[in-house]
Amino acid sequence: MTSIIEQFFRNIFTSWAGMIIGLVITFFFTPYLITTIGKEQYGIWNLAFAIVAYMGLADIGMKQSIVRYISKYYATKDWKQLNQVFSSSVRIYFGISIIILAATFAIVFGVLHHFKIPPQFLNVARAAVLVIGIDQAIEYAMLPFVSLGAFHRFDITTAWRMIARIGQTIGIVILLELGYGLVAMAIMVAVMGLVRRLVVNYYRMKLYPEVRFSLASID
Questions:
Q1: Could you tell me the end-to-end alpha-carbon distance of the chain, in angstroms, rounded to an integer?
Q2: Rounded Cα gap, residues 33 and 42, in angstroms
């Protein structure tokens, strides 16, 4: 069994590794992306992620509260209270994901055309924002299932975030070389994000079987 000190340094190592890999990918991938898809579509790509990033405000501090209470009840082995917090957070985040989904459709079909997007790229921009917004909604719906912060297993979440980032970068390069564009890139990001969440959820169920979702536990 991993000691606290070992886990501490494992978390530090994966965090630094994740940051370095992210910087390297950004440094080399960004010029390639601009050259391949052009400045206009690269601007749309950044705009899509910037719009969706603002939806992260819907969290309103819930993630920190989940970590605080799940870690507390896990330490005291109060499984009833732990699963009440966990199951209730699932319901709350499902509601947040619905809000994000509604906001995505509102932005795509009611706001996006107000941005200075060239007419020939407007439908592509709408599709890309729609895919990334749906991915964000799924992210929030699954967030309680993939949050391992309460158990200090940042190494797992960071490692799989790195793997997903590398996978999506390689996938996007392949898609662009095959002649695909922004929509295919957005789908690649969404698919790799879903794979990452499913794998992390598998680890959570395997390592912490006491944490279970139940409709009866929702308070």
A1: 34
A2: 7
Q: Answer whether residue 121 shows pLDDT above 60.
A: yes
d(CA 115, CA 132): 18
pLDDT(130) > 90 = yes
User: Is the dihedral angle over the CA atoms 41, 42, 48, 51 positive or is it negative?
Assistant: negative
Cα-trace Rg, the chain: 19
Note the pLDDT of residue 104: 93
Q: What angle do CA 63, 189, 43 make, to 5 degrees?
A: 100
Q: Are the C-beta atoms of residues 182 and 37 closer than 8 Å to each other?
A: yes
Q: Is 58 exposed, middle or buried (0-12, 13-18, 19+ CB in 10 A)?
A: middle
How far, CA to CA in Å, does 66 sit from each of 2, 71, 106, 122?
24, 8, 29, 39
